[in-house]
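Example complex used in Figure S2.
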Amino acid sequence: MTSVPLSNPGQLIVRNQELFELEHLVVVGLPADDLVSHLLSDGVDYISALTRDFSAYRRLIPLEARLKDQLSLSFAPILSVDFTRPVDGVLLFLQKSKPLMDFWLEMVLSFLPDDAPIWLVGENDEGIKSWKKRLKNSFGYVKSVDNARHCVLLEASEPLKKTENFTLEPWFETFSVTAGSTNMDITSLPGVFSHGRLDKGTQVLLETLDAVPSGKVLDFGCGAGVISAYINTLQGEHDFTLVDCDALALASSHKTMSATGSKSFTVLPSDGLSEVTGQFDLIISNPPFHQGVKTHYEVTEQFLAQSRQRLRPGGELRIVANSFLRYPPIIQKAFGRCETLLTRDGFSIYRAIRKA
Ligand SMILES: C[S@@+](CC[C@H](N)C(=O)[O-])C[C@H]1O[C@@H](n2cnc3c(N)ncnc32)[C@H](O)[C@@H]1O
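Predicted assembly (356 residues):
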């Protein structure tokens, strides 16, 4: 496993590692760094960890295989806790989406014993400071434990209520969106990109798609599945592969596509194109450029550079991006040519065809 330096919240946890020297620590929202290795070598007996991020999961699979009796990893929207091991504490990583935090706190309140603490860690610029007050809605006792590296570590205990029978199903929300003259029902979980609405960039992209020839479609960074759901309303026979690194997005896309009645779709976890095989007639995307509150272009730049080899000769790459992003030179380098189909409301639609 290649080493990934600790994130700032991870460094704050390691500074306070004596708090976490427990028999069974549950970690929710685990980031893609080396925190688990640190905790296990610093005195935690057993960790059950939930991550929504496939890149974190993929990195940690070899560690889990090596440390079967110390680590159980889940890449999923919610955690199924092994109740044969009493939980001694929960460490929750702050998520940018407040509805997702509410969702995961409800989940934690379904298994947190009355006498076990929950710690919440996050960065100042992600809004951790407001959570001291918010946690008081759910816990009788809340305090700040430490504050460094632009992060805060909070501790809460004495839950004011318990969640009975926590399940995933009630957290899916279905909403209706319109692109051009097409109405679609999209289902999504809290925290998924553009939850409850159609993203403006995606809308501009869909409005350039009045026909898609029959064939294999790769929907990269599928979110709640809106792009595939739209193409499914067009004429033709389409075989969809929807990929995302977010477990919440994948569960949402599965719901959205199942409800369309399409029988030809696969929902696949992937970090960039890491798990994508075969070749497609169309690769379509509103690719990511935010991770948390920070801007990251690396994933998309790599996706653009690699997408040509995932297209059949004659196949098309079509993406939407903020017009200020310098994607055309990358597409041009990979494909020899990059066409701008439309520029509107600050977004550009780019197209490239694989020649041979
Ligand atoms: C701008 S959103 C677009 C979502 C959806 N296609 C839409 O138009 O509403 C980008 C998506 O890329 C996903 N993503 C981010 N990093 C990724 C990665 N490394 N590999 C695959 N997907 C990623 C995000 O989870 C998010 O769902």
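The domain at 172-353 is CATH 3.40.50.150 (Rossmann fold). The mean pLDDT is 94.
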